[in-house]
Write the structure tokens for this entry.
Amino acid sequence: MRVISLVYTALLSVMLGAGGILLSSHSAQAQQAAATNASTAAVEHGASSGLSQSDIAKMLPATDMGANAARQNNPHLPSVSDSLATPFDAASIPVNPLAPNADAIGAKTCVACHAQENLQASHSLHVASFRAGAANRGPQAACETCHGPGSDHAKQPTAPGSIIAFTHDAKTSPQEQAGVCLSCHAGGARQHWIGSIHQNRGLSCTDCHNPMARLSPEGVLAKSSIDEVCATCHQDIRAKFNRRSHMPLPEGQMACTDCHNPHGSITKPLLKTDTVNETCYSCHAEKRGPFLFEHAPVRANCLNCHDVHGSNQQTLLVAPIPMLCQQCHTMTLHPNDLQTPAGLGTGPHPDERLIGRGCLTCHTNIHGSNHPSGSKLHE
Amino acid sequence: MFALKGNRMTPTALTLGLLLALFGTREALAGDTSGTMRVGDMQFGNALDPRGWTPMLQPSDPDGMSYLHAGMLRTPTGALYPYPPMVDPGKPLGQGDWTYAGVLEFGYLHVGGDRNAEYFRQYADWRSGAVLGLLALDFENRKTGAYAEFRGDHLSGDDQFYRLRAGRYGSYRIEGFYRDMPHTVSTNAYPIWNGVGTTDLTLPARLVAGASTPAQVAAVSATVPRRTIGLNRTREGLSYEGVLYRDWIGSAAITNEKRTGTRLWGGSMFFNYPFPDNGGALETVRPVDFRTTDINLSVRNVGKIWHFLATYNGSFFRNHKDHLNFESPFALYNVAGTPQVADIKNGQSSLEPDNDYHNLRLDLSRELKWSGQLTLAGAWGTMRQNDALLPPTTCTGTGGVFIAPTADYTFPCANWNTTAALSQRSAHARIDTGLFDARVTFHPTPVFGWHAGLRWYREDNKTRYLSYNPLTGQYGFISENGSQGSIVPGETGIFDPNNPLYRSANIPVRNVPFSYTDSQLELGADWQLGRKTSLGVTYTYDQNQPKYRERKRVDDQRIKFDWVNRDVVGATVRLSWEYAKRDGGKYNYDPFVPFYSESLPGFVTPAIGLPAYTVADMRKYDLSNRTESKARVIVTYPWGDSATLSTTFYGNRDHYDALIGRQSTSTTGATVQWDWQPTPATTMNAYLGVEGSHMGISNINDADNSDNGNAYGRIGQANPHLGGPLYPYANQWWEFDRESNRNAGLSVSHAIGRARVDLSYNYTGSFGHVGYNYATIGALAYRDAAGVAAASSGFPDNKYRTNTLDLGLSFRVNSNVGVRLYGRYETGAFSDWHYAGLNNTLSYDHRLYTDKGGQLHYSVSVVGVMLSLKL
């Protein structure tokens, strides 16, 4: 079956791939070809749109693209060149594939219309830090460092795609949006964004973040807290935290991002560590051991017995004891009896295998024992 | 290199190191922080304010986000962004470029009703008294980008946090924090022992260890005061992140956690259920006295082409209480032989050993042609502990059973209650891990991309332990501190090839160093079908090679399709479906022979054979053949200009190819959420969620009693097959756990002038039903008339239900002063058959319990008034 599936899948992939290439329109290819370079290429700042600075000046306030004057009053700052735009360190003005010939015009021009956006963005962590950095380096191209050169947009403000946009009706694809953000925020915690589940599902950075307003005091989030952001899509997971046993997420003691890196990781559930168990050990270091005597499913994967997001059983267990244990323990003698209400505290035969902690009353070191007599996890 | 002794000096050294690093900071770009790379401490809040910063949220700006359009824009998926807050420009600090803003909210809370309800205070230390809702101070230099932030709150001394961050945007950041987090395990506990929280549980004066009757124990249990069992986590941390040299960015973090308190624990003095008025099953209380120090170091370089990241994670766990001794009140009697010679009255558990953990990982990414990227990751880790081992027993005198001079099953405790009875004095336990992960992604055209991934992970357990007593030349251990062998002759836990009484005892003599190697291959492709639609398919082949498990190889193949469309009648729809099939090598139902005494020289197999270890048709669910399908649909629908409707439908079906063991699981659920924000002054949210799940297993009772066919100890006991004499079909049984969960909630926030009303209601209802079928009463644990009658009634349903109503009324007296009235009313209901009857008594024959379980019903209220000052 394994070989057949492998061949079948490879064949299916090749066929679908070929089909996709053939079916895709030439125009779509042409339209998006420039996007492949969007995240890395800096703008060649030669005038190419036919729109001169004087044209812009007639319509809008003067740009600040030659704003070295801002530095001239400060003798402590080194002089900078009067280039059209000076990025915030590595930040470059990205090409907008939908307006490839547009030119940068400067934040001052943008703000002429987008005054309220400017007011809000100026007090968000992102833009405030951006401007603080740029203040020591040169004139501000803040808006266009994310939104791309704005001359086409200034000419035709309502034309879709004239700037790189990050919202629902944007013509800019999520991949291009993410590429803009990653031009500064690549690496580190986002090293594995490419290929992550969130990238594959077409999420954009601005699905979770909003750098244009201070919606959260930290993290430039799209909602007021991390958990609220995650629950936008993962409502069912958030609901599990309301169950009887759960981690202290509803109580504000932890967030989804304590365990998960939503920006991508080398694990499918976006865990911050290499394995499930290593993530668990980060807080439950006592479970790490190694123990003299191990319990196989415990060492293999904590999720064999625990539902970490919430459970209706004690201690996040996936099934009630002794049923949980009796999935595997059919051994001769005491483990394989069918327990019924007869063994409850109210039954005719109260049984330690059922009452309270059930099996764990005796096998109390269920995560592993370091006792020389603990091979059965009693001690 | 970071091994700690006592764990005291390293925090100080690291602190100094971090400060030195700070002085060496150069101005350059640190794109942003590595917080989402480290586990933990991403969230600081409490039950009063789960966000941890709610008082900092300004009222919404009536001008919205733009003069150019009304309402709010939406995320690319279609969810509405909240209205932005009114801008707080801060206040100037002196004559320079610094500004500051701050919020102080404090007040008084009164907690009424069942304030000790377990599920009300599980992770919150609600108390009547003064509270600090939030103290937040932000300092910022808008010219240089330098900043300092302080935040803190205090619900109680066990539920609080304080955190200071400072740095310069794009250059460096340093952070220090202190926090206390409570965890209540039970508020309904009645331990009879003295010394709760220590390593020695001693009986009260009214009871005598090993010589008290069940009636005496019950009488004491009925009079001990109620206690709370729980623990507290106190964490402090310090971290730094900034530029080391040019584009090299480094981070260093150290956290130290002290975890103290108690948890419910066990205590076994052998079975009580087959031996009335004998044995002992005790629910004890263990101490928690942990200290864990974590060190995280990273260095990264992000270039145009290459991305490099190296991380080191070290964790050093220290348990200051590594064992629990307890006195058992119950007398033990040998079931054969007279007179009783053993005086076993104490039990012992080891608690978790200290451990050291190191993990070094390198990540490397390179951009490739065709919008491609190659990512490589490699890691090596090791976890080790070498704690001194406890002696095999704490008993004194003589243990075991004497029947006759030729049937003398006694043992001198002195031969076993010393570490000289061990083959090694310390654990020498070690597990090494290795990881290699490679992934390549290409998008040769804008409409087509493919990727391939390879992952290899190995966990190698190097721990080797042989249970051998050099003092006696015997193998094995002292089971349950001598109690088992003092009740049942020969069940001491000893194998002795030179003693006819013990040369056929099949007992574990070695540890099982479970290990595994996991290899994964992934191939995938994705297509952009038009501007708003994409389709992806991924095939994954996962081969797991566990060591010393029932299978030497497990193959899991998975194919997954995902489809995204951003305009299905205006909605964004994300759909995924996956199908997986697992099989593998031959299943060996008993792979543990090499670890039992039957593998040792001199072992004599009984004439009728050894009893079967387990039924041969059993399949452990993490190794058995399985088919699995999963589906999930997430729909986000922009409803008009001011509302969003989002729904999720999900389900999974798993079928296990197992006659005995887990046979199936399934989950089906849906959620619906409606968010409405018609104006900056009003927001409303409503949600509903339902989920049903099912798990089914099968098991079989062996014919272990004379009233149940071929009894244990007779011919046929060696036959492991289902339907054989030991496991007759008549004894098979099936059990299922069916659970349903319902959630609902409504929240409204509305501002009227200077006042704002916040109202929210949340409901959670979880119901569980365990049902079973059985072929004949041979499956039952109790086959007498009363047992059979009780079996026919079925387990009562379990439930967990809470209703929580929160009401907040905030009033701005002026621009700097506000008053907030807060109220919460919560009711809850709980039932779990594990605790049935424990409210009446915690003592059943030689069983003694401590925890009565959560409160069956509770209602609790919290009211408070908070004064909010803008600083």
Summary: Chain A touches chain B through 186 residues (CB under 8 Å). The radius of gyration of chain A is 29 Å. The mean pLDDT of chain A is 80.
